[in-house]
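Could you help me review a protein record that somebody else here produced? My question to you is simply how this chain folds and whether the tokens agree. Thanks in advance; the entry in question is below:
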Amino acid sequence: MQQGVGRPIPSIRTRLLWRTLATVLIGAAIGAVAAGIAVSVVVRDVMESALEETAQALVVIAEHQSDVAALAQGRALPAAAHDEAISWQLRHPSGRLIARSHSAPETPWPAVPLAEGHTKTAEVAVYSIAGRDLWLQVAQPLAEFQRAQMTAAFAAGGTVFALGAIAAAILGWVIRRELRPIGEFARTIEAIGPETTALTEPTLLRRELVPSYRALGELVQRLQEKLRSERTFAAHAAHSLRTPLAGLTAQLEVASVTPPAELPARLSMATASAQRLAGVVDALLTMSRASDRIQCSHFDAAELASVATGRNIEADATQLLTAGILYGDFDLLAVAVANLVDNAERHGAHRAWIRATQTDGRQCLEIADDGPGVSAGQLARLQAALERLEVRAAIDPELGLGLTLAASVARAHNGCLTVESARSDRQGFCARLDWPNQPPNGV
């Protein structure tokens, strides 16, 4: 997948890994520099302190050796050849050299006037201290002084940086390992197909991914319900279309061999089948439209009275003439009413009543008939199937095309469809479409 033209989508894992490693390494480098500077300062202070301590010790010894000047006479004191880390010079207050160590130069350093404290020349770091009648200067080669600082600084800084690099490597491994559950989650999503009913139990579940797995599992369930609903809808459509098509085909086949005198009757039957087929197609299209944005407006309930005319059932819609103004999608509601009336006819009813009422901000359309009705068990199953359609949009085989269409229209209006027996003796059937007298969500 590409983002833009030729621009790859960035990886969370790669960005997190490299940014974390860069942060750790930059931090380690800064820590190494800071440690090096700190150690360098400490080493300098220690070495300068060593020069001071050495000078303070030697000056006391020199003051109690009255024959040092006579013995040395400006030369190095007698001693076997050796390497000196620290050299010294004894000097007269005038600056004249009295005595020196083996590796100290033959010329005094630094020049007169003498002053207590630390000084540096191009070659040495010197500490001068005054006695009662002489001066003592203790020195260390500046290169050695600086080398000690640099060695200590590089040792400390290098150690800090090496530890930072090791920490970065360990952190990178940990990040890659901890991000593995995300990869597994992605593979779980890729494995979802039309036949997936439940997610595979993750092997690397993490607390942060639990809501995602839960939401994905619920999504899979909803998709399965939707798929079952689509299959049921297709079955309803096929069944509903097959009957009028078969009747139309049969009537046309019979009409082709029927004597002219009987032809009008056969053609009338074929026309009725074609009209029935057109009604089924309208119902299917209405169900499809009910899932989209509907167009609500105010209309007179009396306009629905013409919906049930011209059918093979006596439809009483006189109550609609005084029911007042309703609010909703007239076309969807009209098709729903027409299909409920047809439903009553198909189930043996001879008469149907269409009523409309309004109470407490809600509207209701009721279609009752004088048919044989349904048993209490079947009525409960129908109501349960309608509740599943209302909550999850799950079409149930228990519902026919008429009830499914009416329930879909009610749901599109933020309402519901309920069913009950029309009379206390469980004779007759009543479908009640109820919805609020206000625009549905998104309208």
About this structure: The first strand starts at residue 87 and ends at 91. The two ends are 36 Å apart (CA to CA). The chain has three domains: 12-171, 194-290, 295-436. The mean pLDDT is 75.
